[in-house]
């Protein structure tokens, strides 16, 4: 998955444009920048990639989620429903606004189980955040219908899913707002960076202002711009945006390589009857950044994961035992360890987390192994890897 595996002259050329004039900031300094507006250019290019009306670049994927929620008016005491299987950032982004993350079970898509979502909707629920973990999606039509019925905002955390589609539409462009990350290990990287995408003009303007201290970005003189509301600094720099412009040009190539490598591994594992795969809903096309498969039991998955590591099959994750992507080990959040006081409302709203059990999520994540698909493998390497994986799994099943 990581775009840093394909890196070089395209990125260097874009970055050099910025270094040549020294304007590292995305706003202002019009006279000095020799016509280079890398962040604006990347936003336009991403609008085309996602076929969406608006893109707002920000400083990270975590920032993108906070900005998206803030843009839609999510704040103190509001509940946001999200899955037990996600990167911890999705949870943090909700907390940052004083809102309450309500975690619910996933299903065999490894994303939100729509029934679990419906079961926890209350009068306080403001948004549903679907997370397209490992490049694939849940049943977005059903989730969207639930949100419409209950007048909830649908936010897509598509940080791991650039290049994936659902019914021909880019992941991230289906909900009210979509969020992307361009951190160092994502499919395309800016070093650090993120994006909020939306077809909603008001949410876009909110994102644009909120991510730059509330600046309205109207007129020429930055100092004289007015501030219609409170904002913070979640800006991306021109240098980071320049890297992203180079990387974005590689996206079709990256997805092609991922699909090719993914298919070799999947076809090999599919010869083992006990191995099953993550469900991809009808109409869905994943981004092939990870291959996710299920083994018959938690015990077998643990053993296979250990054996993979011992045999040099790297970058395969058994998320059940991982600290960052699954609720089971989020002790610091369950105990609400915070540097500063957390409001009583959020404390009360989060009390469930200390005692909550997620048997259905355990059932899927316990048996799941997620293998990162690298871009740098030769065909021989992928085939050798596939053969070794099959051998290890068969040994453990015997
Ligand atoms: C990477 C990631 C994020 C956060 O992105 P950063 O750019 O690292 O802040 C959020 N959600 C998911 C699912 C991610 O994988």
Describe the structure.
This protein is an alpha/beta fold and 398 residues long. Helix content is 40%, strand content 14%. Helix 1 packs antiparallel against helix 8. The protein has two domains: 3-250, Aspartate Aminotransferase, domain 2 (3-Layer(aba) Sandwich), CATH 3.40.640; 252-397, Aspartate Aminotransferase, domain 1. The protein has 15 helices and 14 strands.
**H-E string:** HHEHEHEHEHEEEEEHHHEEEHEHHHHEH
CATH class of the largest domain: Alpha Beta
Number of strands: 14
- The Cα radius of gyration reads 21 Å
CATH superfamily of the largest domain: Type I PLP-dependent aspartate aminotransferase-like (Major domain)
Low-confidence stretches: none
Query: Termini, distance in Å?
Result: 32 Å
In spatial order, strands of the major sheet run 1-9-8-5-4-2-3
Overall pLDDT confidence:
97
Shape, per Cα inertia axes: globular
Bound molecule types: pyridoxal-5'-phosphate
Question: Which structural class fits the helix and strand makeup?
Answer: alpha/beta
CATH-level-2 architecture of the largest domain: 3-Layer(aba) Sandwich
What name is given to the CATH topology of the largest domain?
Aspartate Aminotransferase, domain 2
DSSP strand content: 5-15%
Major pleated sheet: 7 strands, mixed
- Provide the helix percentage: 25-40%
Number of helices: 15
How many individual domains? 2
Oligomerization: single chain
Modified residues (N6-(pyridoxal phosphate)lysine): 186
Family: Belongs to the DegT/DnrJ/EryC1 family.
InterPro entries: DegT/StrS_aminotransferase, PyrdxlP-dep_Trfase, PyrdxlP-dep_Trfase_major, PyrdxlP-dep_Trfase_small
Pfam families: DegT_DnrJ_EryC1 (PF01041)
């Amino acid at each position: 998955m990581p775009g840093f595996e394909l890196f070089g002259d395209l990125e260097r050329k874009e970055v050099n444009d910025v270094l040549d004039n020294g304007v590292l900031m995305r706003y202002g300094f019009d006279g000095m920048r020799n016509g280079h507006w890398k962040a604006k250019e990347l936003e336009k290019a991403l609008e085309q990639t996602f076929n969406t009306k608006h893109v707002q670049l920000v400083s990270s994927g975590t920032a993108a989620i906070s900005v998206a929620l803030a843009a839609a008016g999510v704040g103190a005491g509001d509940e946001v429903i999200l899955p037990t299987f996600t990167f911890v950032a999705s949870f943090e982004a909700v907390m940052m606004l004083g809102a309450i993350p309500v975690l619910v079970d996933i299903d065999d898509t490894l994303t939100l189980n729509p029934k679990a979502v419906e079961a926890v909707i209350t009068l306080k629920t403001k948004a549903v955040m679907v997370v397209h973990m490992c490049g694939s999606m849940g049943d977005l039509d059903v989730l969207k219908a639930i949100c419409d019925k209950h007048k909830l905002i649908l936010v897509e955390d598509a940080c791991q899913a650039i290049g994936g589609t659902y019914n021909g539409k880019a992941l991230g462009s289906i909900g009210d707002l979509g969020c992307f990350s361009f951190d160092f290990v994502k499919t395309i990287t800016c070093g650090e960076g993120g994006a909020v995408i939306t077809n909603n003009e008001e949410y876009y303007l909110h994102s644009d202002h909120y991510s730059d201290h509330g600046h309205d970005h109207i007129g020429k003189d930055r100092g004289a711009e007015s501030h219609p509301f409170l904002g913070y600094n979640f800006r991306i720099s021109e240098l980071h945006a320049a890297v992203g412009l180079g990387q974005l040009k590689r996206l079709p190539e990256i997805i092609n390589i991922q699909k090719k490598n993914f298919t070799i591994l999947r076809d090999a594992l599919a010869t083992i009857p006990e191995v099953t795969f993550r469900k991809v809903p009808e109409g869905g096309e994943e981004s092939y950044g990870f291959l996710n498969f299920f083994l018959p039991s938690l015990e077998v998955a643990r053993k296979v994961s250990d054996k993979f590591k011992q045999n040099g099959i790297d970058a395969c994750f058994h998320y059940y035992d991982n600290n960052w992507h699954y609720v089971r080990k989020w002790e610091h959040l369950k105990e609400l360890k915070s540097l500063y006081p957390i409001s009583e409302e959020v404390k009360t709203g989060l009390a469930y987390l200390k005692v909550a059990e997620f048997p259905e999520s355990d059932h899927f994540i316990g048996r799941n192994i997620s293998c990162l698909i690298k871009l740098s493998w030769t065909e021989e390497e992928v085939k050798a890897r596939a053969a070794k994986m099959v051998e290890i799994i068969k040994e453990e099943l015997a």
